[in-house]
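Q: Hi! First time doing this. I have a protein sequence and I read that you can turn it into a structure. Is that right? Here it is:
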Amino acid sequence: MNEPTTDECLDDKERISLSEQEVIDYLRNLGMESVSEIQRYEKAQRDEVLGKLKEVQGVTIRQLARITGISKSVIDRI
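A: Yes, that's right. Below is the predicted 3D structure, encoded as structure tokens:
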């Protein structure tokens, strides 16, 4: 009982969240002029961009779905 552990509790982690404007700015840094441009990309290119966005800490799948207009289930599968 007195041994130190490396256990982490669920409520110990600080939640980081980005605003939708910050995500849109990140998309513009990737070279997109408008958010709807991602809908016109070919599937492989679209999946690559969405994969990069999912890796950004603080971006949620629902948030990406709202911003891009691509369904949550499609983004979740990537």
